[in-house]
Amino acid sequence: MTGSFWRYTLLIAGKDLRIEGKSREVLYTMGFSAALVVLVFSFALSNATDPAQGPITAAGVLWAATLFTGTVALARVLDRERENEAIRALLLSPAPRAAIYAGKLLAVSLLMLAVEVVLVMLVGVLFSAEVFAHPGWLALVLLLGTLGFAATGVVFSAALLRSRNREALLGALLFPVVIPVLLAASRATACMFDPLAPDLEPVAFWVRFLLATDVIYILLGLWVFAPVVSGE
Amino acid sequence: MPTTPAPTSTRFLAACGGAFLLLFLACLAVAEAPLESVMGLVQKIFYFHVPCAWLLMLSTLVCAGGSIAYLFRGSERGDRIALSAAELGVLFGMCVLVSGPLWAKAAWGVYWQWEARLTSSLLLWLMLVAYVLARRYGGTSARRLAAALALFAAVDIPLVYFSVRFFRSIHPQTTVVSTLGPGMRGAFWLSLLSFTGLWFVLMSLRLAVENAQARIVELEVLLDQAEEKKS
Question: Cβ of B141 and A180 within 8 Å?
Fold first, then answer.
């Protein structure tokens, strides 16, 4: 049972990533909008001169851009299942609903992480942030933050598949739920970007917080995904 | 069709009378409670703020319970309870978010601080607002979508309650109630009880409206079926 769960998860994630590999639609649109968000913040905050606020601003911009562009990935990856009623075929397939959720979660997270690599470098250049001071911790925070975001996002965007105003609603419903993730990830990132930070104790605290949030959100997602999509 | 006491039934009117009598007594007790030595009159916001915060959490819990019943057992009644509770959560959450800053301005010198208890309470309220928005504008899948949201909102409750212990917080601790003086403690518990009574009255009224609406839809379907048979 567990073996087939992982097999279906990888199959579904692989299918989404193969489609993306051919069209590169999500990666390009997401990458471009992410760069635009960072640039907009960079223009808007160009007069901010307090060097002490630099790492906090850079971390905030990085995570705000991740949040906005993550919704693009979520909407598009789930939207593909609407075309030609592919969602029905997917739900009628022998794949357990939890594996469909896990597969989508994996695909969305990997796409987001790919764009975040570009985002980190852009933030480093435009905000003069020490982005590679602690690469291991940064990778961990990016991974956990992205997983927490995608864990809730997949549930809501799947539930909104049939809704006419899903673009407007997705952000309105998703952002309040993912703010704890955003808060923890941006606090940890700000501490990592700060060359004057005395130690990484706050990073370790926020990583533990992110880990706990991720576990709760993923378990909740696995639990509610089946009844949420049952009417599709 | 599940039955709740009709808003005009004797039982319901007696419950209403009891709740309002309790509220009146709580007002008297709060007025009579001694003034706190440091904060003075502003401290009396406490008798309003804490019961509202408790009802925000209770509403979220009931909303999550109703949502579980709807999502996993298809209970229509659970769905109606969840919607009614979410709306009350928005109402009492607004009371918390207005009364808190009034107290904070006097105690901390600022209306708002980005600290754990305030942030998590605001998030909980935002999630309930999102629930109501989803119900109104979510289209065909609104009920399942909102139910899922309610479960994610319920996760925030322990964070709100324990935030003052986990994080460095300037918000008064949850243990503050046990440190209240004798005159204050009675007024506080009476206030909490009367607000909870008010919550039950409002919940019954809102649920009665939801039940009536469901009944109207049911009757419309029956009418359509009867007309189809005739023709």
Answer: no
Instruction: Return the domain boundaries, chain A.
Output: 2-229
* CB contact (8 A) between residue A169 and residue B152: no
**A121 to A24, A58, A124, B130, B218: CA distances (angstroms):** 21, 11, 5, 34, 59
A100 Cα distance to chain centroid:
17
pTM given for the model: 0.85
- Rounded-to-10 torsion of CA B88, B93, B95, B98: -160
pLDDT, residue A79, reads 80
For the cut 90, the answer to whether the pLDDT of residue B95 exceeds it is yes
Residues B185-214 have a mean pLDDT of: 89
Count Cβ atoms below 10 Å from residue B54 Cβ, excluding itself: 17
Cα–Cα distance list, B48 to B16, B157, B162, B176 (Å):
20, 19, 20, 15
Residues B111, B101: contact at Cβ < 8 Å?
yes
Cβ distance B142 to A176 less than 8 Å, yes or no, reads no
Question: ipTM of this predicted complex?
Answer: 0.83
Shortest CA distance from B120: residue in chain A: A180
Rounded mean pLDDT of A29-49? Answer: 84
Residues of B in contact with A163 (CB under 8 A): 138-142, 145
Q: What does the block give as tokens for B136? A: 């109104």
CA distances from B123 to A153, A167, B110, B156, B163 (A): 17, 21, 20, 8, 13
